[in-house]
Amino acid sequence: MRDIHWLIENVDHYKDAIIQKRFKSKKNIVAYVLLNGQPRVLKWFVPGLKQNMEKEHTILKKGVSSLCIPSPFEKDTEQNVLVLSYIPGQNVCDIINDPNTPPEEKEKTVQQLADWLIQFHTLFKTDHEYQIRGDATLRNFIQHKGQIWGVDFEESRVGKPSEDLASLCSSVLSTDPMFTDEKYKLCQVFLDSYRKSAPWTIENISPEIAYALLERIQYRPNDEETLRKHAVKIRNKGLLIARHNF
């Protein structure tokens, strides 16, 4: 099992790094460190995911001047490591799920998420296709100085903007507390905000939200029954009606 300590102890370039915090990651090893006295994030990709490193570096390099995203300082192709700027602040998942966060602040946050996604989709759109950020979960956004910052772009790919929206809604709905009336309302505020400002049309997104919820079962097997129940209701009735039918 690889560990960030191995990288620091065995690769000269990182020998002066001082670990401050480790981040949860399904695939890779990610840590906040002080590197030569500077706050940095080391993202160490497993050997089989080098193409993901290249993809994320490309997104960051193109987007850093226009979007609130980390700056890519180095790409270490020998060790498969990206050295990125560290974004302090509060994880958006914690803001949305904190019972002490005022409802109006939660609504403002999801509206900011909609604005961020519109900016991303606009920047990377071509005449023929859209690039989506991928893995658009609450955990992959940070609130810092009143702005929303996106992190983790290794799953970015060609797709439909609605896929990012569905992923975000499924994350809102299925994080604890799950499927509350407030969560359904926040999804509606988020989608309404995106539709109002985006120069393209988003239609019939409920089936995609249902599919995104079913996808989460692989990571949340203990919640399978609840996820399936709400996914079926949203797919059959639509998000708005499903909110009032539990």
Keyword list:
alpha+beta; Phosphorylase Kinase, domain 1; Transferase(Phosphotransferase), domain 1; five-stranded antiparallel beta sheet; 10 strands
Task: Give a quick rundown of the structure.
This protein is α+β, with helices and mostly antiparallel strands and 246 residues long. The chain contains 9 helices and 10 strands.
Topology order in helix (H) and strand (E) letters: HEEEHEEEHHEEEEHHHHH
Strand % is 15-25%
Q: What is the H level of CATH, i.e. the homologous superfamily of the largest domain?
A: Transferase(Phosphotransferase) domain 1
Q: Report the strand count.
A: 10
Return the structural class.
Answer: alpha+beta
The pLDDT mean sits at 95
Helix-residue proportion: 40-55%
Major pleated sheet: 5 strands, antiparallel
The N- and C-terminal alpha carbons lie at a distance of 44 Å
Low-confidence blocks of residues: none
Radius of gyration: 19 Å
Q: Name the shape in a single word.
A: globular
CATH architecture of the largest domain: Orthogonal Bundle
According to CATH, what is the class of the largest domain? Mainly Alpha
CATH topology annotation of the largest domain: Transferase(Phosphotransferase), domain 1
| H/I helix tally | 9
**How many domains is the backbone divided into?**
2
Strand order, largest beta sheet: 1-2-3-5-4
